[in-house]
Structures are given as C-alpha cells and as structure tokens.
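[09:14] KT: can someone run the structure on this one? pasting the chain below
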Amino acid sequence: QVQLVESGGGLVQAGGSLRLSCAASGSTFRLNDMGWYRQAPGKQRELVAVITNGGSTNYADSVKGRFAISRDNAKNMVYLQMNSLKPEDTAVYYCNARDRWYPKDYWGQGTQVTVSS
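[09:31] RB: done, structure tokens below
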C-alpha cells in the first residue's frame, strides 16, 4: 500500500504564493506518475498538474505559467509551487499517485488552499 500526506495549504491574499508538499510512504516503488488535483465547493475534482517518473510535466491551462510541479524521487516527495494565486484557485488540493503495474490511484487526504481577494 501507499500513503500520501499533503501539507502546506493555508490562507493567502491574491497575488501571493504557497508551496504544497506531498510525502509518499509505504510501497513507494509502486509509484509512477504523481500529480495534484483540486476540488472547489460545488465543482468536480480537476487535474492541476502531473509529473512523470522521468520529470515530464503537464498543467491545466488555468495554472500554466503560475504553478510548477516537481518531485524528489529519492525522498518520495512531490511539490506544487503556486505563484500569483487568484481567488479562483481556492479549493481543496489533493495529491495523487498512480500505480506502476495496476490501474489504481492513490490519494492524500487533501489540504485546503484559500485565496482572498
């Protein structure tokens, strides 16, 4: 099994920055792509950014140029640097990891990000 624990959420003013961290533990050798999703009240969960084992990245159009995802495979960590935050970025942010061998997703418990205008 794999456990994911997020940290770094909080309240920030528009234009500010936050850095989210996700620590993976357990059977981390199973991990393939890792990423961040978010869910705002009344909305569906959406992909924010994803990073492969090799470091290739992909972003939602709404965060391109403002957010940056990175990962440290030696430490089993994935990060999301969020700059120029907007009120519409307010959501619960979830860390996600995909299993290397099976069609299975692992999820963290989520961390709240609130951007005030």
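[09:33] KT: thanks! The first strand starts at residue 2 and ends at 7.
[09:34] RB: yep, looked fine to me
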